[in-house]
Structure formats: C-alpha cells, structure tokens
Amino acid sequence: MRKKAFHTGSVKKTVMIKATKEAVWRRISNIVGLPTWVVNVKKTTYLSSKKRGVGAVRLITFSDGNKIEEHIVAWKDREYFSYIATEGLPLRAYVATISIKAKSGSSVELTWQSYINSKKMTEIQFLDFAAFMGSFYEASLENLKACLEEQHQKNRP
Questions:
Q1: Range of the domain at 141
Q2: Number of domains in the chain
Q3: Is 3 domain-assigned?
C-alpha cells in the first residue's frame, strides 16, 4: 500500500489575449462572473457584503454540485488579485493569484497560478490532482481568451 502524506506543489498557466487591459480586468475582477468563462461553474454568489477587493468572499458551485468558498486576500486594481480557498478542495492550503500585464495597447498576458498543499494522499493522487488543476486553468483561460477576443473584434472600428 502506498503511503499517504502531505504534498506541496504549484500550478501556473499563462495565456495571451488580444484585448485591452481594461476589458480583461473588467471580466476577471467581477469575482462572481465565473460562469461566463471558468469551466464547469454553474453559479457564483457573494458570501460577503463587500464585492471587490480584500475581504470579498464568494461561493462557487460547480456543475457536479461541488462547492468551493474563496476569500480575496490581495488586490491591486488592474494588475492582480489573490484568493484562498477555505472549503471544498482536497487541500490543506490553496492560494491563487490571477495577474495581467499589458503587452501592447491591445494585447494582454494573463497568468493564473496557485500554491497547493494537500490533505493526506498518495503522491500519485496529488500529481493527478495537480494535473487536473492545470488542465482546468488552461481550459478556463482558453474560454476567457475566446470570449474577450470575440468582444474585442466586435468593438473595433
């Protein structure tokens, strides 16, 4: 039998989006707007009266019924925000940051990265979970890119 232990790792995915920094920030900083771009999210609701910035709390409900509670712990307008998951993942710690950098007037680099520390599981279970998170980030970022680039094309003269 494989030994169960705590494991630590990180997941990082980056995408280039042909859209303005303002358009990208507007979409990602709407912390309950996830169903429009994050895969398998059925709905997202506020658990706090605060809607933006440090102290805002959201509850994400996935298509499979799983729920994750997240708290915004860092926020710099038009640059990044960080959040922690407090419920709903097979982890002891999950801290993620979504950040954007303008590469030109109409192109943005968006990065979604996280630090994860597991509950007790085998190394294979942990590696599978980290790979799942990576593909989840990648698919979500591709959705975001498609939505924003389509919107950007429509808004061009």
A1: 8-155
A2: 1
A3: no
pTM of the model: 0.94
Q: What is the pLDDT of residues 86-130, one digit of tens each?
A: 999 999 999 999 999 999 878 999 999 999 999 999 999 999 999
Q: Is residue 2 part of a domain?
A: no
The neighbour count for residue 8, using CB atoms within 10 Å, is 11
Check if the beta carbon of residue 16 is closer than 8 Å to that of residue 109. yes
Beta strand residue intervals within the chain, DSSP E? 8-17, 41-46, 57-62, 67-76, 80-87, 91-104, 107-118
- Burial of 25-51, coded b for 16+ CB within 10 Å and e otherwise, reads bebbbebeebeebbbebeebeeeeeee
CATH number, domain of 121, equals: 3.30.530.20
